[in-house]
Amino acid sequence: MREHYRLDRLIAYDTEPIPDTVRVVNPARRELEGKIRARTGWLSRKRAEFGGLILQEPIEPGRVERWSNKKVALQEEIAGLGKELGELKERRKDLPSHLTFKDLPEDQRFERLAVQSKHFIDTIKMIAYRAETAMVHVLRDQMAKHDDARSLLRAIYRTEADLLPDSQAGVLRVRLHH
Fold first, then answer.
1. What angle do CA 136, 140, 145 make, to 5 degrees?
2. Rg (Cα) of the chain, in Å, rounded?
3. Using H for helix, E for strand and C for coil, what is the string for the chain?
4. How far is the first Cα of the chain from the last one, in angstroms, to the nearest whole number?
5. How many CB atoms lie within 10 A of CB 149?
6. Nearest partner of 47 among 1, 9, 80, judged by Cα
7. Where are the domains of the chain?
8. Residue 50, CB half-sphere, CA atoms under 13 Å: how many?
């Protein structure tokens, strides 16, 4: 098959240009979304830290003042993060989530993998999987444990075998090696 049909050459990683009308994710929006997720996570951690900050020491003026200062500092940090998060969300409203490929900045443009050979190879894979599944159904009827049929087939596929065609009888015998 390799020599006559060059099936191993079908799997290629060639690229092809993307048509200008294809819609793609806006990279500026994606970057902004990442910042928003990071700030949201940071804010939730700070809120949890604020909620878990409990005075467990004896109530003395110095210790209470240190605890109170920590609480105030955390509260100010939370307020600042909340304000920053709000500004990021407002900027996100102005950015479209998708752009046409022609509207992407030049440094953000890319090519996609060629799809013709991929479709053909995927078709071959689907045919092989369906044939294997049909063999599994035949084997399941003969086996005590139905779940072992696919494992048995995988072991058979890795085993060396002799193919013995009998064209007169229209039969193909497969002799597995030990």
1. 120
2. 32
3. CHHHHCHHHHCCCCEECCCCCCEEECHHHHHHHHHHHHHHHHHHHHHHHHHHCCCCCCCCHHHHHHHHHHHHHHHHHHHHHHHHHHHHHHHHHHCCCEEEHHHCCHHHCCCEECCHHHHHHHHHHHHHHHHHHHHHHHHHHHCCCHHHHHHHHHHHHHCCEEEEEECCCCEEEEEECC
4. 27
5. 20
6. 80
7. 18-110, 116-176
8. 16
Across the range 101-116, mean pLDDT stands at 77
For tokens 């991929």, name the residue: 118
Q: Give me the residue label for tokens 């990071």.
A: 38
Are the CB atoms for 111 and 18 separated by under 8 Å?
yes
Closest CA to 100 of 25, 31, 33: 25
Rounded to an integer, what distance in angstroms lies between the CA atom of residue 151 and that of residue 166?
29
For 20-77, how does the pLDDT look when each residue is reduced to its tens digit (9 = 90+)?
888 888 888 999 999 999 999 999 999 999 888 887 777 888 888 888 899 999 999 9
All residues at 6 or more sequence positions from 141 whose CB lies less than 8 Å from its CB, including other chains: none
Place of tokens 């609480």: 71
59, amino acid identity: I
